Amino acid sequence: MRHSRILQRALVAGACLVALAACGQAAPAAPSASSADQTTGMPGMTGAPPASTGDTAPVATDEVSIKDFAFAPGTVTVKVGTTVTWKNSDQDPHTVTSMGSGGPLKSPTMQTNDTYKYTFTTPGKFDYLCTIHPFMTASVVVTP
Question: What are the boundaries of the signal sequence (predicted)?
């Protein structure tokens, strides 16, 4: 009797381990033409989030475009006293908000073609995101 209980528990534990292992090894399904039109679970977003280009080299400009659920360029370098302008060229609303607490960037929700401007008065690196789509991140590097 005792051996059958031990065997039964071992079989149940083994089945659980097999089920858990199978979850982590499922091959992703190839995207179909119709799957790109389905929502991804992010509010206000259709399709998959854009793939990162990996291009984080700072760009000297004072304009940032918000398009295809990304800030472009991803890193901007400006001098102290420069006003940076963000323009929402997406059909969905976005924000420009400093990461962490106390940062200077706090745009209202920007609709299509809205702009937000901020003048940087101190040097440093200012990381920001869209609070509606938090996977959208970028930085402004301010030099003396």
Answer: 1-21
